[in-house]
Specification:
This protein has 11 helices and 12 strands. It is of the alpha+beta class. The protein has a single domain, classed as 2-Layer Sandwich (Alpha-Beta Plaits), CATH 3.30.70.100. The strands form 2 sheets. Strands 1, 2, 3, 4, 5 and 12 form a 6-stranded antiparallel sheet that branches. Strands 6, 7, 8, 9, 10 and 11 form a 6-stranded antiparallel sheet that branches. The longest helix has 13 residues, at 3-15.
Length: 259
């Protein structure tokens, strides 16, 4: 082990001492990753399109940076007859669970409040946006000079398979991580939330390569991945418009906070 890596390992062990990988991540001081969810008030989707676009303004980007929020992107999807909006961002604040309050403190976000219908649990917490449960993170490929292609997808989790699915993602197989890296995927996160009596699963990822088809084709014949999806696919309940397991979220807005 290189000396710098050894010192880093000692520093990490001094601060990260939870029993779960999730808590160790939070205690490590490394950047965390956040997804927030809220639905549109009926008849406001056109107005919301303009409101989310205003998150692109330089003054809003500056306001986000000042509260340790970066790399903001917004996606939408009609689920259970409502238009839901997923906001993703990277967060460098000291307390991960303060992320939703930080986001809602920005004036451009406050202006959207009359247009948003909170998830029942968010409403009970006194917020408009619900901070989703972050259950998995893969760093994947190292960031490159290419502008990443950011996207998000959604599916449902079978309630009777929830425990199995969570256990699989508490210890993601090394071969699955390696495949993600070979395919030039970076910053992959999975989030869970309940909507009425269904469990929904969202992921966010960044493709940092130049030829997604080539990278994907080069990783198709991967026996480890084939065994992995034989375990994970039965845990999921695809939406009617799914391509296989996952349905694409519609991109709405990307801010300049990463610039």
């Amino acid at each position: 082990m290189k000396r710098t890596a050894f010192i880093a390992a000692i520093a990490l062990s001094a601060t990260a001492f939870g029993f779960s990988p999730y808590e160790n991540r939070l205690l490590s001081g490394q950047q965390t990753h956040v997804a927030l969810l809220a639905s549109a008030v009926d008849g406001t989707t056109n107005e919301l399109a303009g409101a989310f676009e205003r998150l692109n303004e330089n003054k809003v980007a500056k306001a986000f940076r000042e509260i340790d929020i970066s790399n903001v992107s917004v996606y939408s999807k009609t689920l259970q007859g409502k238009v839901w909006y997923l906001v993703y961002f990277d967060y460098d604040g000291d307390n991960y669970l303060d992320a939703v309050k930080a986001f809602e403190s920005v004036e451009a976000v406050k202006a959207m409040k009359p247009l948003m219908a909170p998830h029942p649990r968010a409403k009970a917490n006194g917020t408009t946006w619900l901070q989703l449960e972050w259950i998995n993170y893969i760093h994947g490929a190292k960031p490159s000079g290419n502008t990443p292609n950011r996207f998000s997808m959604v599916t449902r989790l079978r309630p009777e398979k929830e425990e199995e699915y969570r256990w699989l993602h508490q210890s993601t197989w090394p071969g699955v991580v390696d495949r993600m890296t070979r395919m030039q995927y970076h910053n992959f996160s999975i989030f869970l939330v309940e909507l009425n009596d269904e469990i929904y699963e969202f992921f966010y990822v960044e493709f940092i390569g130049t030829d997604a088809t080539k990278d994907q084709m080069g990783s198709l014949a991967d026996p480890t991945y084939e065994r992995w999806i034989k375990n994970t696919d039965p845990c999921q309940n695809p939406l009617p418009d799914a391509d296989g397991i996952w349905s694409m979220m519609n991109p709405v807005s990307k801010s300049r906070t990463e610039e």
